[in-house]
Amino acid sequence: MKNYHSRTVFVGLLMAAALAGCGGSYGGGYVGGGRHPVYQSDVSEAAGQGLEARVRNALASDVRVGAESLTVKAQGDGVIELGGNPKDMRARDLAIEITRRVRGVRTVLNNMVL
Questions:
Q1: Which element (helix H / strand E) includes 67?
Q2: What is the rounded distance in angstroms from the CA atom of residue 114 to the CA atom of residue 65?
Q3: pTM for this structure?
Q4: Which end of the chain, C or N, has fewer beta carbons within 10 A?
Q5: Higher pLDDT, 109 or 44
Q6: What is the 3 state secondary structure string of 24-58?
Q7: Residue 96 is part of which domain span?
C-alpha cells in the first residue's frame, strides 16, 4: 500500500511541475484585470521605448550635442545604439558620455558617422 501511495505522490508532483512550465510565455498577467495577456516581448518593448525616451531627453538637454541629428535605438537589455551625424568629434563623444549616464543604459553602441 505504501508503494502505491508514493507513486501517486510522485506522479502528482511530476504533473504539477510540467504544468508550471507551460505558463512561461506571459510576462505579467493581464492588463488592468482585463482579458488581454501581457506578453514578455510587450513588456520588454515598452521598457526599451522608455529607455530610448530617457536617452533622447538627456541628449536634447545639452545643446552642444546637436541631438536633432542623432538617432537612438534600444537593442534590449540596456543596450543603446546611437546613430546619425554629429556636428563634430566633441559632440559625438559628449553624446556617448551622456548616454552612458542615463539610468538603465548598460552599453552604448556608436554607429554615428562624422
A1: none
A2: 13
A3: 0.62
A4: N
A5: 109
A6: CCEEEEEHHHCCCEEEHHHHHHHHHHHHHHHHHHH
A7: 37-114
